[in-house]
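Field log, afternoon session.

UNIT: design team B
ACTIVITY: writing a sequence onto a fixed backbone
BACKBONE:
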């Protein structure tokens, strides 16, 4: 069952010493600042000892409204951060700095604050078995508790002869809702309803609302959708201001704001309240057009959307067409899925790009994407870098039935050589000559830093016809590897003999450490297969026999294949002895730089299947 919110609020203030005061303690007006949200409003991770001296001292100019039970008229206590600014003592948030600075300029003293926050809470309704939520569609949960406190505060202050006014409502929440697409999409309307109810409870229909944009480093999969919802609400709403937090210091968890970050948030809100800073609308430049190859594959760069005015805070880019995706921070436009496009009937598309930043009017403009449908009849793969065909005399030198050199006929200087060469043999079940490896043999090629540009190249396809032979091994045998170190793949494809799964290695985005993805399906040995690994930016997809079998995507995948000072020789059939190597045969191989079109990907899969004399079914 859900916790009792009211009991939590009551018990949180039991340790607070109540101080009653009359209207003679200050002016007749009592300005009450409202704070609500989840853990970044609470101040998770910040301790009383982290407070600077001026914020650690008891502040008689700021009072926290005590709302336990039926409060006496005007009941409150002086603010002491880390002691009475949350339901329970310990953490402190942006209210510490904001209330301190507001107090220094207030003409009606003391000023008051009311704060309700709970870590990990959602704006989207959650099941009854989970934590309470902020949803205006829920009953007897956080919003109702907050509204109840506002109503009590008004009554208590008015009973003391004070006129309660609510000049500002600060909202810091949204990280939880960025983990669910429906929640991120509904966020704008749900928060608008919550704000309307808070304003109604405060009898302040024009009350200013300050919404903290959740940090761009948060890992929620629908972060960009959530940030866009926040910005659209501020643009479309009345007296709603979005403020940026992207430059503010975080704890090492990359979720919660460090003490310096919370102080920066307080300063940012103060500047907005006092008019020192004002949002500036973003504006997308008009008349922009881009050209992309027809049948472009997912992730293909279209261009970067230009801005006439970037605006403040920096905008979140949004595009209105399912065939394209735009980087929310940079405006880099890429292909998402063009498979449904009829290029004959649709030689170009008009798209609306918005740069939403919370300042009206919305920065939106129409752009044009044109499709270049010309194809090279000579080359099925544009920009082909290397193709190795062991069945062709032009792709290898064989001595005593063993490969001593392997190379692409178009680039014969880029050779693979072997200390212990693989054997020339038929690919099992076919009439094609292949390279047979016994688990120790490796073909070593050019340095990977000659193949990719360290710190720059991010897009690559590795594809092969391969036959994994039966073996009693229990490790991973590598097939194709682009090495970042002697025994560390920057990217590569292999087979896990113990689990009967194909695997792929990649470097992660944080420190270049090697990670591994794998298929969930088991693929038994003794079968020839077409295997293709496609890397585009932060996305890796492994296709087995034309079907998607495994993928890793997101910030855990490093965009660049190699970073500076990385790069060891490439490997076929393995990395370096004694590193694990393939037991089986490798046939025709494609190593392609750049992003392939969907037609090129289909051509590679079909060509490898024809070469290996196997049948496949593409996705």
């Amino acid at each position: 069952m859900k916790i009792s919110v009211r009991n939590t609020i009551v018990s949180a203030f039991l340790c607070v010493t109540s101080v009653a005061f009359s209207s003679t303690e200050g002016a007749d007006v009592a300005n009450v600042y409202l704070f609500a949200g989840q853990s970044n409003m609470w101040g998770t991770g910040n301790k009383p000892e982290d407070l600077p001296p001026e914020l650690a001292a008891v502040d008689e100019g700021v009072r926290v409204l005590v709302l336990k039970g039926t409060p006496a008229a005007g009941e409150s206590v002086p603010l002491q951060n880390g002691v009475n600014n949350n339901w329970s003592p310990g953490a402190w948030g942006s209210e510490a700095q904001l209330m301190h600075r507001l107090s220094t300029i207030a003409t009606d003293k003391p000023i008051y604050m009311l704060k309700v926050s709970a870590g990990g809470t959602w704006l989207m309704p959650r099941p009854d078995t989970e934590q309470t939520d902020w949803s205006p569609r829920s009953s007897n949960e956080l919003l109702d508790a907050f509204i109840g406190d506002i109503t009590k505060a008004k009554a208590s202050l008015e009973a003391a002869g004070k006129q309660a006014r609510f000049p500002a409502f600060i909202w810091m929440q949204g990280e939880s809702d960025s983990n669910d697409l429906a929640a991120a999409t509904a966020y704008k309307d749900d928060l608008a309803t919550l704000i309307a109810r808070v304003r109604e409870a405060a009898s302040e229909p024009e009350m200013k609302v300050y919404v903290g944009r959740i940090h761009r480093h948060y890992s929620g999969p629908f972060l960009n959708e959530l940030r866009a919802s926040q910005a659209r609400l501020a643009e479309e709403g009345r007296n709603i201001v979005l403020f940026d937090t992207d430059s503010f210091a975080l704890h090492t968890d990359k979720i919660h704001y460090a003490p310096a970050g919370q102080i920066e948030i307080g300063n940012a809100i103060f500047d907005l309240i006092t008019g020192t800073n004002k949002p500036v609308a973003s504006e997308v430049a008009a008349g922009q057009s881009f050209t992309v190859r027809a049948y472009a594959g997912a992730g293909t760069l279209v261009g970067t959307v230009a801005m006439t005015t970037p605006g403040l805070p920096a905008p979140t880019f949004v595009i209105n067409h399912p065939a394209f995706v735009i980087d929310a921070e940079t405006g880099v436009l890429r292909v998402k899925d063009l498979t449904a496009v009829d290029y004959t009937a649709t030689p170009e598309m008009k798209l609306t790009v918005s740069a939403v930043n919370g300042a009206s009017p919305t920065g939106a403009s129409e752009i044009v994407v044109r499709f270049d449908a010309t194809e090279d009849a000579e080359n099925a793969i544009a920009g082909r870098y290397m193709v190795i065909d062991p069945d062709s005399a032009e792709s290898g030198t064989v001595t005593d039935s063993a490969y001593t050199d392997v190379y692409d006929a178009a680039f014969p200087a880029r050779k693979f050589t072997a200390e212990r060469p693989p054997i020339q043999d038929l690919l099992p079940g076919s009439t094609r000559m292949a390279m047979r490896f016994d688990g120790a043999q490796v073909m070593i090629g050019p340095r990977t830093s000659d193949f990719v540009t360290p710190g720059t190249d991010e897009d690559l396809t590795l594809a092969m016809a391969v036959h994994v032979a039966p073996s009693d091994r229990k490790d991973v045998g590598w097939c194709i590897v682009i090495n970042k170190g002697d025994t560390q793949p920057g990217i590569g494809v292999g087979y896990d003999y113990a689990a009967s799964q194909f695997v792929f290695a990649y470097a992660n985005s944080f420190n270049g450490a090697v990670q591994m993805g794998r298929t969930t399906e088991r693929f038994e040995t003794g079968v020839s297969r077409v295997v293709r690994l496609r890397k585009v930016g932060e996305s890796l997809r492994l296709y087995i026999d034309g079907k998607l079998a495994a993928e890793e995507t997101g910030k855990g995948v490093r965009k660049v294949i190699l970073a500076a000072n990385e790069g060891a020789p490439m490997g076929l059939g393995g990395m370096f002895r004694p590193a694990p190597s393939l037991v089986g045969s490798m046939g025709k191989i494609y190593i392609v730089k750049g992003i392939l079109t969907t037609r090129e990907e289909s051509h590679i899969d079909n060509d490898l299947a024809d070469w290996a004399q196997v049948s496949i079914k593409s996705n």
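LOG NOTE: The first helix runs from residue 5 to 12.
NEXT ACTIVITY: expression trials, pending approval
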